[in-house]
Amino acid sequence: MSASSERRALITGASSGIGKATALAFARAGIHVGLLSRSQEKLAVVVEEAAKAGVNAKAYPIDLAETDQVKAKMQAIAADFGPIDILVNNAGMGYTKNIIDTPLSDWQKVIDLNLTSVFQCIQGVLPQMRDRQNGTIINVVSIAGQQAFPGWGLYCVSKFGLMALSKSLAAEERAYGIRVSAICPGSVNTQLWDTDTVDADFDRSAMLDPETVAQTILVAALLPQQAAIEELTLMPSRGAF
Prior knowledge:
The chain is of the alpha/beta class.
């Protein structure tokens, strides 16, 4: 790959699940990857595997829940890793509880991670993309950003907000040569289902696997510059949400 055709991507939530699968898919496609997550140890494993594809892979430990620091940290990461061509906002958390039973503290925690941190990640790299008149921002939303599910109220609110952010950003940045994609998978078999904020009993064997979602993200990233996938819904073929 020539220096002029090299691409660099930052991927949040890259230590596991969709983020890890996306990092490896990008690396195998020849895209240099900056990997962001809280766990330096887990990131190191992904970096080592991605580097086997012959690309530059680098770990950036960051806690996106610390929203007041995210923009400045993203600016520093973007400056260190090089001109950022692709930003994949994948980090987030699941949450199940009826609205009436949702504490304000939980509301703020979920909104901060699933929505506000994405807003700050975007603000951290967007000026650089505008200066270059080029860039692709891919937000991993969810089918929960398109339809509401009982018991998932707060999660749906955060994902509907992320969808609105994606659509607004796409409309604003189109004139600057920046593409924005909202990828909306149905249920994906990741560690989200094992977290203490999610109480759901679904058949995980009927879900999408992270690698399938990652391939969809890669397609959105590799489209010719004159085309954009602005919204894509990817559902399990076995009927699971």
